[in-house]
Structures are given as C-alpha cells and as structure tokens.
Design a protein that fits this description.
single chain; 142 residues; mainly beta; Immunoglobulin-like; five-stranded antiparallel β-sheet; 38% strand
Length: 142
C-alpha cells in the first residue's frame, strides 16, 4: 500500500478541546458559483500566460486569439498572427491575419479553425520582428 493509499483510507481525526471534550468532525464545504461556471467558455481556454498568448475556442470552427506578448511589450504598433493547422513540424494551410487592438497592450482576432487539427501560431510586427515562442511556436489542441 502506498503513502497516497494510506492518506485516502485514513479517517478524519477529531481534536480535543481544552476542556477535554472531543469536537464534532468538520468536513470541507465546497462553494459553487453558477456565475463563475457560466463565465467559462464551454469549449475551453488554453494559454501561454507567461508569453501573453491566449486561445479560446468559441465554436466548432472559430477561436479567439489574444496577444499581449513580446512584440507588444517592445512597442509594436500592429501585430499579425501567422497560423496553420496540424503538426507543429509540418504546418498545413498557412495564413496570415492582422490582430485588432482590443485595449492598450492587447490585440485579438477571431481565427477559423479546422476540426480535429492542432492550431499553430506565431506573431510578427510590421518591422518583421517575430515572436515564435523561442522557436517552439504556440500550439493549441483543437
């Protein structure tokens, strides 16, 4: 039996009060918010949070990409997403789409996606500076 099995099988312990009486067992009560549950996309959000890239699938054939990464932090006035589908090593149907400035320091676009194929994305600015996640690209499971 492993340590985890021992922990899972262990019964809750009671604690003694100062007067020597045992207190009732207390169990964790989970709070749940319908509002929080409804705020999350039913398709899910994937993120490279440290790089400022978020991918949110909004329907079976569209996804919202949000970018606030290296190029924006370096002062880019415009950002394009270069994206393709399938394997990260062999992109298919490569296209370029300009991102719209959503707010100060944040750009976004709605990208078409192909069902069942990963989406691979890199970003470039008008001076041809690229953010390709240090050569690894930004890959999202579809």
């Amino acid at each position: 039996m492993s340590i985890l099995d021992n922990m899972m099988n262990e019964k809750p312990k009671t604690t003694k009060k100062a007067a020597g009486k045992k207190s009732k067992e207390s169990f964790f009560k989970e709070e749940y918010s319908d509002q929080l549950a409804n705020d999350v996309s039913k398709y899910g959000i994937q993120s490279y949070s440290k790089s400022g890239v978020t991918f949110e699938k909004t329907s079976e054939n569209q996804a919202k990409i949000t970018y606030s990464g290296l190029l924006v932090k370096s002062g880019a006035q415009s950002v394009d997403a270069v994206y393709g589908y399938g394997s990260n090593q062999n992109w298919e149907s490569v296209s370029t789409m300009p991102l719209n400035q959503e707010s100060a320091g944040s750009y976004m676009a709605i990208l078409p996606i192909e069902q069942g194929k990963n989406v691979n994305i890199v970003f470039k600015d008008c001076a041809e500076n690229w953010d390709n996640n240090s050569g690894m690209n930004y890959t999202f499971v579809n």
